[in-house]
Amino acid sequence: MILRITFICAVKGLGLIPGVVGRFDSSNGLRVPHIGWNALQTTKDTEILDDVGGRHVYFVHSYRVMPSDANNEWISSICNYGDSFISSITRGNVHAVQFHPEKSGDVGISILKKFLDPSSSSKTKKSAIGKASRLAKRVIACLDVRANDKGDLVVTKGDQYDVREQSNEKEVRNLGKPVDLAGQYYKDGADEVSFLNITGFRDFPLGDLPMLQILRYTSENVFVPLTVGGGIRDFTDGNGRYYSSLEVASEYFRSGADKISIGSDAVYAAEEYLRTGVKTRKTSLEQISRVYGNQAVVVSIDPRRVYVRSPDDVEFKTIKVSSPGPSGEEYAWYQCTVNGGREVRPIGAFELAKAVEELGAGEILLNCIDCDGQGDGFDIDLIKLVSDAVMIPVIASSGAGAVEHFSEVFEKTNASAALAAGIFHRKEVPILSVKQHLLQNGIEVRVCAEH
Predict the structure, then answer these.
(1) Do 198 and 119 have their domain in common?
(2) What is the DSSP secondary structure assignment for residue 295, as one 8-state letter?
(3) CATH number for 336
């Protein structure tokens, strides 16, 4: 049999495998949860893992078991994240893994095939040992999905959130079908695919069946993590029936999502938490994190830059800008927005990030309204500000226009991943080109076998 190891804390196990489960130690700067593609080092010759040594597989967890003399005979592979921990065990015909083979692309599919048909291992020539050695930086493809005027769901993208063409018809910009594009990005080497439903779930989230179908169809052929966001909140339908945000998120998860992204609702929750200092356990962020784990919850932050002459002008965290503002200002803060950037809120990106981390977010998707669609690069000041402030992974978003922008954000900030949309949809910058550039600059990324 093959099992997925799920480690939890403070519970006595069956005692079959010697060891103690512990949380990753974040006191030395380690980001927890451990999310992403990390290298495996095999320690035992097994048919199932015969060609995965030195290659990346997908992890998402906060707890691990350390190798020791007592459990050494069980260990078939280890992974290093801060320290070496057990990533798989093998004994007789029992195999268990800490990573997710079903989300580990071609490597994971190979593992599952060998388990189902052990003879396939001997039929296939062993591939060369990979060169992966640590946690890879992730390249994520984002698909903004909305209904066009005919009611069909399409992938779209706009400048400063305007997704309509400038022609007389003013039609919604159509860059492709969601399922087809997601499948292509998977083949191209995207480490994750993120869907943002920018028109659905406004009035009746659980009634948005086409988007749920997109998740189901995509998960059948795309074997990397899928994130989906858009309208995850408590609501009451036209008949007076109340639905919790947890019910909405659960439908996403059942349809194939691995992570959900919360935007506006997380801003309101953070504002209330900072005002009262009380965790109510009733917000969408807290509910979903408590039931599914914080690794399943991404908070999307959409700020815009506001210039000020002095840090004393505002109560929020400011930065000294690399280039002066329109009136010569030397400082700026990042004001958060809701409702797709249409409404500003009295909270800064720094303060919001710290608050949602405490409320249970496992990852932050950091956008920048000023940079969106501009193609001039990520807002390095913003990403550095937030990624230095929190101990959970941060995804850089908004502004990528060239391969150099990806290496810049990884070299100058602590971002764990970088996300792009339009440049991938318009085929201006292929995902493979991004990864080749990162490798040439000494930045570790996952490389697919076919590439």
Answers:
(1) no
(2) G
(3) 3.20.20.70
pLDDT tens column, 416-429:
999 999 999 999 99
Q: Is residue 448 part of a domain?
A: no
104 with 160, same domain: the answer is: no
The domain containing residue 259 runs over which residues?
Answer: 138-440
In a domain, residue 129? The reply is no
End-to-end distance of the chain based on CA atoms, in angstroms?
31
Place of tokens 């803060």: 333
The answer on 113 and 243 residing in a single domain is: no
Catalytic option among 51, 144, 208, 381: 144
The Cα-based distances of 317 to 320, 331, 334, 347 in angstroms read: 10, 10, 8, 10
Listed in sequence order, the residues at least 6 apart from 153 whose beta carbon sits closer than 8 Å to its beta carbon are 145, 146, 147, 177, 178, 210, 211, 214
Residue labelled with tokens 């590439």: 451
Sign for the CA dihedral angle at 306, 311, 315, 321 comes to positive
At residue 310, the 3 state secondary structure works out as coil
Q: How confident is the model at residue 1 (pLDDT cuts 50, 70, 90)?
A: very low
- The reply to whether 446 falls in a domain is no
Question: Which of 191, 302, 372, 381 does the annotation list as catalytic?
Answer: 302
Alpha helices in 50-100 (DSSP H): none
Domain count, the chain: 2
Say if CB 248 and CB 198 are below 8 A apart.
Answer: no
Q: Which residues pair with 89 in a beta bridge?
A: 75, 96
86: tokens are 């057990």
133 domain-assigned: no
- How far is it, in rounded angstroms, from Cα 266 to Cα 277? 15
**∠ CA(26), CA(386), CA(357), 5° rounding?**
55
* Catalytic residue check, 191: no
User: What's the rounded Cα separation, in Å, for the pair 285 and 334?
Assistant: 22
Domain match, 301 and 220 both: yes
265 is catalytic: no
Is the previous residue joined to 33 through a cis bond, with omega within 30 degrees of 0?
A: yes
Does 208 share its domain with 257?
yes
Q: H helices within 345-402, ranges in order?
A: 349-359, 380-389
Q: What is the pLDDT of residues 141-173, one digit of tens each?
A: 999 887 776 767 788 775 545 666 666 566 767
Contacts of 427 (CB under 8 A, 6+ apart): none
- 355: tokens are 């608050």
Q: If you average pLDDT over residues 231-242, what whole number do you get?
A: 78
